[in-house]
Design a protein that fits this description.
The protein has 80 residues and is mainly β. The protein is built from one helix and seven strands. The chain is globular and about 35 Å long. Bound molecules: zinc ion (2 copies).
């Protein structure tokens, strides 16, 4: 599953967690913004390249956005 990553500070700002979102819309590989499936008006600014991330992600310090994961699992259309 192609995903775009967001760096989130957790644990009082001491650790950085990589949160993966399902991207929506076009990507030309040089965009400075990615829309994401879980939000109509928020997205990833200055995203790193999309990567193929397994649905059953179990890497430490990385997790799926729960809302995006629900959309992926539900197979719903990403447009609101
Ligand atoms: Zn998300
Ligand atoms: Zn892109």
């Amino acid at each position: 599953m192609l995903a775009t990553s967001e760096r989130v500070r957790g644990d009082g700002g001491r650790t950085e967690v990589l949160v993966w979102h399902k991207p929506v819309g076009r990507c030309d590989g040089e965009c400075d913004f990615h829309a994401i499936a879980c939000s109509a008006d928020e997205g990833i600014v200055l995203p790193s390249p999309k990567q193929n991330v397994p649905i059953s992600l179990d890497k430490p310090g990385e997790r799926w956005c729960p809302d995006c994961l629900a959309i992926i699992r539900g197979g719903r259309a990403t447009e609101k």
